[in-house]
Amino acid sequence: MSPAVYGVLFVFLAPVFGGLLAGVDRRVSARMQGRIGPPLLQPFYDFGKLIQKQARQVNPVVEPLLLGHVFFMAVTGALLLSGTDLIFIAFVFALAALFLVLAAGSVNSPYSFAGAERELIVLLASEPFFILMMAGICKVTGASTYAGVLASPQLVAVQLPGVLLAFLLVATIKLRKSPFDISTSHHPHQELVSGLTTDMSGRMLAYVELAHWYESALLCAFMVLLFNWSVPLGLVVFAIAYALEVLVDNSTSRAKWQLVLRSTWAATLIFSGGNVLALFLLSR
Amino acid sequence: MSFFSKSPWILHYDGSSCNGCDIEVLACLTPLYDVERFGVLNTGNPKHADILLVTGSVNERNIEIVENLYRQMPDPKVVVAVGACACSGGIFARAYNIQGGIDKVIPVDVYVPGCAARPESIIDGVVQGIAALEAKRKKTA
């Protein structure tokens, strides 16, 4: 199959993967709390209901911005799998996230606005890492496309253990898990109500969910890049990493934004920066 | 069948309750009752909610808040009055600052009796609320 076909497949299958992952997540979380939890397909039921419900737009610009958010999340994955340069992917990924910040910042709700500001901080914390990770992967494998990295005989994770460690930390941000879910809140009665999504209702919220499903699938694709020997190996490691994220989510409370920024930057600089630097020095 | 019956999101508002009913509402989320099994989510945000669960009666100070929360909820939406105070004002009905039950301010779809209302009857009330939600959706669709 040509790489372009994989790109198209991502657009259609990633939401199914992301939605099921969210369903498993909610069930596993419930079991950790001694509950039975919702059906596996609950995220899809929620999505269907949100589409059917009335959507109130506080600002008419919100809907196009959220559609842009979904579109660029899907495009990031499609470009990644269809063989676009990895560094470019890191930038499109940031652009997709920026659309959500703009949508949340365009309304008057102080909670939504605070959520948008925090999402910017979170972007600031995570973006340097993704660029460094892509650079490291290109350096190790000598390839700059998805197919090229998968074809490489080098196992990336063995050469980039620091990057893998930092990836687990940054994934906590991207998967919106406690203690790093500062810009949104999946649990009620907290300081931010619902953060970014406070003023979004009906299908607006459904768009945010859909984009998040794409984002989860994208992170899974990144994990496959790190364990490039085989796709099933990457999927298994992603499953283990996700289980760890759920455990951390259920056993920690939300951190302040200063801690999020400092710890992520420290991990990016020390673990991945050190790792990539050592690689460059050793290979000279 | 629509998705409303599978994913009712709840907003819980405490009017001037003694907290008895509120504790029972929260008990519904605990491992013993676990209403999330049926897709129920306690959202805390009126713009995400389908069902407004009100405990306690309406007093002079919270009329506006109850009305505001109700207005902020997107359609279709239902209101479930939980406990004697929310239904009629309860033992506080004749107090100088109490207006009476929630239906004095916003239209109530389901009344859940009890002082405090038991978790089983609250879940029952929510189930009836879902039926009302379906009926409203069909009317607007």
Summarize this entry quickly:
The complex is a heterodimer of chains A (284) and B (141). With 284 residues, chain A is mostly helical.
Question: Strand fraction band of chain B?
Answer: 15-25%
Structural class based on helices, strands and sheet pairing of chain B: alpha/beta
The helix fraction of chain A, in percent, is over 70%
Task: Give the rounded overall mean pLDDT of chain A.
Answer: 88
Q: Most extensive interface, residues per chain?
A: A-B, 31 and 25 residues
Description:
The complex is a heterodimer of chains A (284) and B (141). Chain A has one domain (3-282). Chain A is built from eleven helices and no strands. Chain A has helices at 3-32, 42-52, 62-81, 86-105, 110-141, 146-151, 156-159, 161-174, 203-226, 231-251, 257-282. In chain A, helix 1 packs across helix 3 and helix 3 packs antiparallel against helix 4. Chain B has a single domain, classed as 3-Layer(aba) Sandwich (Rossmann fold). Chain B contains four helices and seven strands; from the N terminus they run E-H-E-E-E-H-E-H-E-E-H. Chain B has helices spanning 20-27, 63-72, 84-88, 119-140; strands at residues 9-14, 41-42, 51-55, 58-59, 78-82, 98-100, 110-112. The model of chain B has no long low-confidence stretch (mean pLDDT 90). Chains A and B meet through helix 2 of A and strand 2 of B.
